[in-house]
Amino acid sequence: MDPAPRPFAELPLDEELGTPVPFACGTGDASGAAPSARKLDHERVTQCALSRICGVCGSGLGRPIAFLGSPQEEGRNAFHFPPAHLECAEQLLAVYAEVRGSVLGQTEPFDQWVIVTTGGFEYVRGRRQDVDRRPTFEPNSVLEERRLG
Ligand SMILES: [Zn+2]
User: Considering the domain boundaries, does residue 45 fall inside one?
Assistant: First the structure.
């Protein structure tokens, strides 16, 4: 597995969807399986949180920090996809706008993607009592919110 950052244009392509696979979804496993945009890679998600790197391109975050996800995630202020550069989030959603359902860490169908920008966030590890025990990211003050699709 190569953890080096990659510019958006050089991300690997998902064989099934034909779309770029962001850093947070990994670059395929040791068995040689092709990378898939359907699932988040746990190690990469943790790496993004702790090292403050972009979930799309894998390089260091600046300001603002963008979160992308479903309206439900926005409503709960708890996103599963790690923080990203705003430009990276926009580029990623430009190609995923027509892809619905289980991609980029989403588990339920929804009608539109949301991008939220913030100056900072909390990383919340999955708790035993949560239905969904995956870690989440909570933006700590929303600067701007945009709906796409
Ligand atoms: Zn980026």
Answer: yes
Residue 44: inside a domain, yes or no?
yes
Its domain, for residue 125, covers 8-148
- 3, part of any domain: no
Neighbours of 79 (CB within 10 A): 23
Q: From ligand 1's centre to the CA of 72, what distance in Å?
A: 24
pTM to 2 decimal places: 0.90
Q: How far is the CA of 33 from the centre of ligand 1 (A)?
A: 24
CA–centroid distance, 35 to ligand 1, in Å, is 18
Among left, alpha and beta (phi > 0; psi -120 to 50; other), residue 15 is alpha
Q: What is the pLDDT of residues 41-83, one digit of tens each?
A: 989 999 999 999 999 999 999 999 999 999 999 999 999 999 9
